[in-house]
């Protein structure tokens, strides 16, 4: 049995591990360690396919746009237009509530049991998300369409996301 001091240390360690596992996704190239981060593929001059895998959909969508803006500026362009996109989630469908009834007999004895399952500590929310876009970039004034983004504005907006 754990003493109070040992219990407190174990609880603190568990909370630290939980905080690390659920913090924001760092902005970085994708790694084989955890898979989080961006990957991009040039298709032709000024055209890219970009993906970002993060801990949630909002982060994935924000960070894939950030990477698109960086590539746009690196190419000497001012704006980009999203010509194709997708979002995919992974790891959801945690525990669900349920009721079970069972019985048993054995010789002169018999029993009936009822069980109720309630999800504790598990969420049905996805644990990871990937956003993917294909972009074309351009120079000059940004087109007046909802799928076009000013690269510098995107960088400023996404600057609050931590870098490695």
Features:
single chain, 164 residues, alpha+beta, 5-stranded antiparallel sheet, two-stranded antiparallel ribbon, 27% helix
Strand order of the largest sheet: 1-2-6-3-7
Share in helix: 25-40%
Q: What distance separates the N and C termini?
A: 41 Å
The mean pLDDT is 77
Low-pLDDT stretches = 4-21
Q: Summarize the biggest pleated sheet.
A: 5 strands, antiparallel
State the shape: elongated
Instruction: List how many beta strands DSSP finds.
Output: 7
The number of helical runs is 3
Share of β-strand residues: 35-45%
Radius of gyration: 24 Å
* Order of helical and strand elements: HEEHEEEEEH
Query: Pairing-aware structural class of the strands and helices?
Result: alpha+beta
């Amino acid at each position: 049995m754990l003493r109070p001091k040992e219990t407190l240390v174990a609880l603190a360690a568990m909370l630290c591990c939980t905080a690390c596992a659920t913090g924001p996704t760092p902005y970085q190239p994708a790694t084989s360690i955890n898979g989080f981060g961006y990957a991009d593929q040039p298709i032709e001059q000024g055209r890219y396919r970009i993906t970002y895998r993060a801990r949630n959909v909002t982060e994935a969508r924000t960070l894939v746009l950030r990477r698109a803006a960086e590539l746009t500026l690196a190419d000497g362009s001012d704006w980009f237009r999203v010509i194709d996109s997708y979002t995919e989630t992974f790891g959801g469908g945690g525990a669900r509530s349920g009721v079970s009834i069972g019985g048993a007999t054995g010789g002169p004895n018999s029993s009936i049991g009822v069980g109720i399952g309630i999800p504790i500590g598990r969420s049905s929310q996805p644990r990871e998300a990937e956003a993917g876009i294909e972009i074309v970039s351009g120079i000059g004034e940004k087109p007046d369409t909802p799928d076009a983004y000013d690269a510098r504005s995107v960088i400023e907006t996404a600057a609050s996301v931590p870098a490695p």
